[in-house]
Each structure stands twice: as C-alpha cells, then as structure tokens.
Amino acid sequence: MTPTLIACSHGTSSEAGRAAISRLVTRVRVLLPDVPVEEAFVDVQQPEVGEVVDRAVDRGPVIVVPLLLSAGFHTRVDIARAVARHPGAAVAAPALGPHPLVTAVLADRVAATGLGADDAVVLAAAGSTDPAAAVDVAATARDLSAVLGRPVRVGVAAGTGERISAVVSGIRLQRSGRVVAASYVLAPGFFADVVARAGADATTDPLALDPRMAQLVAERYLDARRALHSGSAAQR
Questions:
Q1: What is the CATH number of the domain that holds 186?
Q2: Which of 74, 141, 177, 194 has the fewest C-beta atoms lying within 10 Å of its C-beta?
Q3: Is-contact 34 92, C-beta < 8 A?
C-alpha cells in the first residue's frame, strides 16, 4: 500500500503564507500523482499533525514530511510525538534543510539581487531556542558561503542568536558594499516580515514558491518510503 504523505508546516495567519504553502503542496501532488497527500500543522492552523496521522494510519502507512527548514522543537517533539503513537505504521522524514537544493535556491535568489563584489550576505533565519536548529542553519550558511565564494553571516528573527537587524547594522560599520538578506524562511508571514524590516539593502523572497522546494519534499518522502519498506522487509 502506498504510504500517505503528510506535509506538515508550521502554520500561519498570513493569507499570503497560507497560499504559498498550499501551492507548494499542490506541486508535490503533481510530482507524486499516485501518492495520497494531506496537509497538517504544528501551530496556528488546523488540522493538527497528530490528528491527521491518527486518521491516516487507519488507511495504511504514513510518512510525515516537515515543511520546515531546520530540525528543532517542532520536529523533535510535535511531529515525533505524532508518529511515535503508531510504531511501524508512521515515520517522519528529516526537515528540508540543510540540503543542496535549498542552497541552490538561496544562491539563485541572492544572485538575482545583482550581488556585487563588495556586497555582504546574511542568512536570515526564523531562529529557535533549540540547538539542533542552530546547527542546521549554520550548516546551510556554510554551504551557501561555499557556493557564493564569500562569507555568509547568520542572523535570526527570534530565539537564540544575533538578531538579523544587529547583524546588518554591524556589517555596515565594517564595509561599504550592500547588505543582502537571504531570507531563510519558507513562506510569507511573521518571520518573513521581520526579515524584510531588518534594514538590508536587498531581501530575497521566501523559498516555498520555487519549484525545487516541491522536488525536495518529494525526495524526502521517497527516501523515507524506501527506508520504511526496507524496515518492513527486514522484519519478515
């Protein structure tokens, strides 16, 4: 039986954010036409991920793909708790980042701002108090730095770490070029607004509407499905 893909995002009160996530999920459905795809959320919106998992496992195995860019509380607690209630029937894929596709999208968005030799780049993330999230964001910053061939600083909108606006201001005291904020958020909403207000000379768009993000969701699902099937075969 084909496992259900539950695309689990944070949830937002932003209509533009909801539309962006909905379009991302629609693209995933196009890429995986034979896979049942349902939406779930960890906050703000309904249905809650545990409720969707509980309902879907009645029809067969379930794979939750976090529409989240980093590991953290929502992956380690909310999503993990939802799948833990159904051992062997439900599994969770990793968060979307770090991943080469995410880095490629970020690099293309930054390049599209007309990045100059003297310009500085800040990876502007939502932030978290979870150390795992900081590790993932730092890894993405290193990957983006390698692609762009220049240092990439990290700034966060919330949680642990230096605030985006402070990073932008600090860079301006040290150099004359522009500051480009690479928006490391998935969809429009509160965190995207914080990034936009941080004072950078250019700010890239959230990532969800790039078609490669749907490819990444499909990849996370297919990898988890292979692992799920391998585990089932090993138990026979």
A1: 3.40.50
A2: 177
A3: no
